[in-house]
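Re: weekly structure request thread

Next one in the queue (129 aa):
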Amino acid sequence: MSNTTTQVRQTQDFTNNERSTLTYTPRFDIWEDETAFHLTGDLPGVSSEHLEIQYKDGELQIWGKAPPRQDEVEYWAQEYGIGDYYRSFSLDKGIDGDRIDAVLKDGVLELTLPKHPSVLPRRIAVKSG
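Done, posted below.
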């Protein structure tokens, strides 16, 4: 990340995670603009009712579950991810956790993590004397 005051560190620490049935770790793109960080991840087969996102103490956690598509068929190949999804991100100070926004559309989760106004550059007006 290019911003030095606000950083999003990606974590994949499953050893301390209480969830023992983790199956998939979705991949996310992360980018930054002047006012926010943006995370975009593929969650194929996960609906919004099977998705939970929590932010607490600088930790963003994403859980999802993709139910089986066909229960009574014999698969020749099954490469499509079915089961639990989990991903977490440690967020340094500078993110306004109260304004995090999430949109799930067509199997793609888009998160917007606004920067806290206190870390945004502030233009200083120059007065003439």
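The longest strand covers residues 83-91. DSSP finds no helices and eight strands in the chain.
Next request, please.
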